[in-house]
Design goal:
Layout: H1 2-16, E1 25-32, E2 46-47, E3 52-60, E4 68-78, E5 89-96, E6 107-113, E7 121-131, E8 136-146, E9 158-165, E10 178-180, E11 184-192, E12 202-212, E13 217-229, E14 237-245, E15 253-263, E16 268-279
Parallel strand pairs: 2-8, 10-16
Antiparallel strand pairs: 1-3, 3-6, 4-5, 4-7, 7-8, 9-11, 11-14, 12-13, 12-15, 15-16
Length: 280
């Protein structure tokens, strides 16, 4: 009987013991639709270049010492190749707790501006939290999709997709590049395969030449425009545009526009030619 009573006492004590406190954890990470604290994004949602990303998460299982907490958090965004999209975002939670805060789960909200040029694929947000008082850390990873067209794959510095437009604001290229004398020729194109220097620095310039149907150079502007920069996230494609005033004295006929581009970092050149027609 004594042994049975002892077992019963031990059983009651074991059942009455409080549950172990939860370990430090990042909980309820959420990507919000279009605004901070908005609804969660749909499962099939795709972000696009330049869009704002709204993230929130909470923290549980931290230690309080003399009613104070000391947490550090960091959010790192990467592309499918592991490259950082932006500098890491970090912050701290240092609060003094009251009795009613014993179940408090601090919330962190972060807004990230996605780079202006991203390829499609699966991207990641890595959330890290450190509890300085408990010498503990926790992580969580959130994946999100980016849509859009993939970047062209080129083996060297190249001028791509040279096309003519009726107006600079047009998005659709002309099916037949026919201008009247006195109008303005508008040409657009892309540059790809340029080399990146230190800190993603790029520097290109481009010019134009107009050839007759026989190939004679009628007009040339070697340096019409340039583009350079050193963005945090590397650029892979540059947009170029040229305009040319077709004065009333330009004769009717067929011509060729040659775009000549130079990659100043990679010390290489590229060109592309397209034909157009002038009528009276």
């Amino acid at each position: 009987m004594k042994r049975l009573a002892a077992l019963l006492v031990l059983s009651v004590v074991a059942e009455a013991a409080p549950p172990a406190p939860p370990a430090l954890a990042v909980i309820r990470p959420t990507l919000h639709h279009k605004q901070e604290d908005g609804p969660a994004i749909p499962a099939n949602y795709e972000y696009y270049s330049g869009e704002l990303l709204y993230l929130s998460f909470r923290v549980q299982g931290f230690k309080a010492l003399k009613d104070k907490v000391d947490l550090r958090w960091m959010v790192v965004a990467t592309d499918p190749d592991g490259l950082l999209l932006t500098p890491a975002v970090n912050g701290a939670i240092s609060e003094e707790l009251a009795v009613e805060d014993k179940n408090w789960q601090p919330k962190v909200s972060v807004t990230l501006a996605l780079p202006a040029q991203l390829g499609p694929g699966t991207y990641r947000l890595k959330i890290s939290v450190t509890d300085e008082l408990a010498s503990a850390s926790a992580e969580s990873v959130v994946e999100f999709q980016v849509g859009g067209r993939p970047f062209p794959k080129v083996e060297k510095f190249s001028v791509l997709n040279l096309r003519f437009l009726k107006d600079e604001a047009d998005r659709q290229a002309m099916e037949q590049a026919v201008y009247r004398s006195g109008e303005t020729l508008v040409a657009k194109f892309e540059l790809a395969g340029f080399r990146l220097g230190e800190k993603n620095r790029f520097e290109v310039d481009y010019g134009l030449a107009v050839l007759s149907a026989a190939g004679k150079v009628l007009y040339e502007q070697p340096s019409a425009a340039s583009d350079e920069g050193a963005p945090f996230y590397p650029r892979r494609l540059l947009n170029g545009a040229l305009t040319l005033n077709l004065t009333a004295g330009v004769q009717a006929g067929d011509y060729a526009l040659v775009v000549k581009a130079r990659d100043k970092v990679g010390q290489t050149e590229a060109e592309m030619k397209a034909t157009f027609t002038v009528t009276k």
